Write the structure tokens for this entry.
Amino acid sequence: MLIKKPDDIKSSEITPQSIYEGRREFLKGAGIVAGASLLPGIATAQVGAGLKAPAPAGLQASPAAPWLREKFTSVSPAPDAEPFFTEEALTPYDDVTRYNNFYEFGMDKSDPSSNSGEFKTDPWSVEIAGEVAKPGNYTLEDMLKPHDLEERVYRLRCVEAWSMVIPWVGFPLADLIKRFEPTSKAKFVEFETLVDDDSMPGIRSRFAIVRWPYREGLRMDEAMNPLTFMAVGLYGQTLPAQNGAPMRLVVPWKYGFKSIKSIVKINFRETMPNTTWVDLQAREYGFYANVNPAVHHPRWRQDMERRLPQTLFDRKVIPTLPFNGYGEQVADLYKGMDLSRYY
Ligand code: MTE
């Protein structure tokens, strides 16, 4: 994100105000409200039948442990309404899995899907540390066993001003956190991604700008919010490596960079953690990173977004909403805070 050339939205691409008065009407007008005919590639459900977004027909499942695949045979479908589901059209599977940010595999959008062939997620373990009654190293199976999987269809808004609608599979982060019994001193949760030189070419690259491991964090009340999701799959299937296998965070009201991938450590802290993008450029990226159309990034305006996929002839530019449209669920978390200062 830091070193990309400006990718701002040209004024000629902006849909006139009159068209999008009432966002839903606009979305309808732009043909991006969901409907069976708007889900390319999802013809006959083969995996995850009954889900709002089953796997595209004929899709090869991503490599995953057999016990994890077994868990995917009983995923509860997303409900019919916001906030855990949106009627906006899904971003097709191919775009969700081929247009990625995962710098451990390279800087270009296609690098994560092209360069993650050597990435192994079995065995996998996660360290739980800091202010909890039950710290330790847990196998992925121990981490996930007690949790029933559910589907959620969320908007994902990247600070680079593109957005997608993705059907995740996972469970609420709050349910996981409670099992480790955080102490009263746990005010923040810090997450870290795996660092593996052998399977992650972006880490070996001399052009890498990130100080590994990739780190992110949430305030404890943000982590416990019912929207905050630990994803282990998308489109009814286990996560592909490029989307953060075997387990990644999804925080839909924050810019995408908060949604850290391939988690190997969860640390409960009394103080605010130092996170990757704040570390790189604190003037441009804040700890909170709430989607906010009123606070622009120096290189990407934040009041509009390009909904992917786009073609030369079909560019969907839509208004960005405060908290990415999840204000009703989360605005209270920031009551009394100046959000232009705590961006
Ligand atoms: N997590 C790790 N470990 N490394 C990364 O480079 N990129 C972030 C986030 N999580 C990133 C990461 C950014 S900038 C975004 S926009 C989202 O992942 C993209 O998620 P997606 O590729 O599944 O759409």
Remarks:
- The first helix runs from residue 23 to 29.
- The longest strand covers residues 162-172.
